[in-house]
Design brief:
alpha/beta, Glutathione S-transferase Yfyf (Class Pi), Chain A, domain 2, 4-stranded mixed sheet, 24 helices, 8 strands
Amino acid sequence: MTASRPDLLLFDADGSPCARRVKISLIEKGLRFRTHRVDLAGLEQRHPAYLAVNPNGLVPTLVHNGFSIWESNVITEYLDDAFPEKPLYPATAAERAQAKGWQTTELALAKTFRPLMYSKMLGPMVRLAASLDEVLDHAKQVTDDPAFLDWERKVWRLEVLTEEQERLCAVELTGYLDRLEAGLQGRKYLLGESFTTADISMFPRVRMYRYVNLPISAAMHPNVRRWLDMLERRPSFKRTQSQAERGMDVLMRSGAMKLIQHAARHSKAEQTLWQRFVLSLLRPVLRRVLGYAGRASRRTRGAFPVCQSSPRTAQPAWFPADTRPTGTVDVLGDPEDIGTVTVLAACRALGIAYRLKVVDASLMEQRSARYLATCPSGELPALKDGALVINGVGAIVDHLCVRGGDASLIGGDAELRARIRMWHAFDSGMHKEARPFMYRHALRPRMQTRFADEAEFLAALPAELSAADRGWIRSVWRDDLRIDMGAAGAQAVMTGKLDKLEARLADRRYLADSDKPSFADLALGLRVMRLDRHGFDAREGGRDNIDRWLIELNEHFDLDGLWSSLEAVAA
């Protein structure tokens, strides 16, 4: 295989916004690639052979000359590192931070979009297509994971969200749309006149708003509507529109999706003869699309590529050698937030002076107007370095390494950098299960210590807090907060991830096969250290490899000293 014709194999899935952004990036960079379609309807992503390639069990995965890379933002950044021609990430630190800030916003948006999509779209479709027994039999052909099977039951029973939770999710998603509208004011693209990975990252998910009954109109969001229409005319965006998207567009335009949603929640006696007739025509179509049309779930055929080796590349061009800023940086975050603690630990490791400016997550201050004006994602932490503001743990640590002139935490070549980013993505994937427990076991006691009753607590919240955020934090106070997979399911998922981590460390010292602990070791190690405090039994069954790894990380980074300093801040 010549250098000009790399072997690029993309594990794709019809309708996946994450896979679509990778395909757009490959096309924009002029790279030729092959695809293997992962049959999501057949649950192929849960098959052990696929999990050996991508332990997160998600799409997409890109294999470059035998080297497997997973998580879409990791893949797109790897493509710019390995193939620097036609870059999609900006070259300057400030613009790169802006681009990664939009990626952080998209990741935050997706956490709200996903349960609403299951509640409003996929749940009703599955319920019309198959019985609960069929759904469970279908799933059991590939996995016996009880948490996954419980999730399948929840989806079919339309128990993912209540009507009030659906409403609050819609409000929150509209808030993200408002921030996108403001971000495009006076700009052609998200970063101005230049088309970048920021546009590629945001577009696929925003385009799907229509599928959860949130159409984007020129009257309410003219900048977003113009931006969407402009990008849809771009050749790479046209080429990557999937059959699933086209089919969903037909369902939405025809009104069939509204009929499916109505039928899922009402008995046949409440349907007209015409509605029953239309549904009888739709059901076999949905059975075929969702994988219930009289066939067994497709098993993975043959061996998947495994992580071997790929050509090493030079140190990324964006890592500048010019004069770097000095002075103290401000870290905006909460001492209980693992991302905040990771950034503080990175500052200490790189010898960068910092001030922690507490943004109290127990009061949802990260969703206050003041914080959102700085960080549109509404996520912790953020870093202020002079006039530059950076949001997202990965983007912040990248910047800190550039600032300190030390790439040891993030890797100096494309393959190592991708390995580190992948295992940070593995850590980020634990956030969905960990976040509600952090609020319940760490932040809720903080609330109850400071406030006498719910009324006093609610009065202390930022006045401009959205209904969605106010509802979420009130549910924390009342200890009835939403956990998508349920408490037992979240515990099972976390246990499974710890088992994967234990296996990963069985024959290696550090996660990314680096000669020193990396950013991924630091972020994931800090999270595991905090699991017990956040209500998870991380030590159940004994995990000797994890214990050995944590001891070494503590010695290397003096994490005990960091925890002690944070306890002093909390006090």
